Hints:
mainly alpha
Amino acid sequence: xxxxxxxxxxxxxxxxxxxxxxxxxxxxxxxxxxxxxxxxxxxxxxxxxxxxxxxxxxxxxxxxxxxxxxxxxxxxxxxxxxxxxxxxxxxxxxxxxxxxxxxxxxxxxxxxxxxxxxxxxxxxxxxxxxxxxxxxxxxxxxxxxxxxxxxxxxxxxxxxxxxxxxxxxxxxxxxxxxxxxxxxxxxxxxxxxxxxxxxxxxxxxxxxxxxxxxxxxxx
Length: 219
């Protein structure tokens, strides 16, 4: 059957026939582990960087010494010499200006920070002064405390009744008006009504006479 494995003895014989005796390789020819390779590479990179920095410092020192000992070359005009001096000292001037500007910016930043801190401190002090203790709501004092579902012992006594009511000062009814008083009030009322009617009639008569006189004058 195609999917059936061969016997164990057959497989071992085939494996032994494929194996060959080889001489072990020396340690120098073995590949370096990746971790060790990274470490060695980093050390090499640092060494190259240090060499470049050293070379750069040497060149700067040499240029600085050359600028410090600038002299007029033979056959060089004064104008060319001045230009060479300016070119040599321009990096120094630029670096000095840059450092000065950085110092100004740093001082300005520190001043702003100090002012902001002072304003914050003043604000905290003002808050502490403005804060007042919280007072509780005043409660109305009463000799007899009110209780829930309290039962009254007696009905209330009205000492003063509303306006135009029949209740007196002592809580009783107002005294009744006598018959004679009623007759006098009715007569007075009738007299006032008659006077009002007569006044109204006389006023209407006066207005009609006035209109008649105006009409006659117009004719």
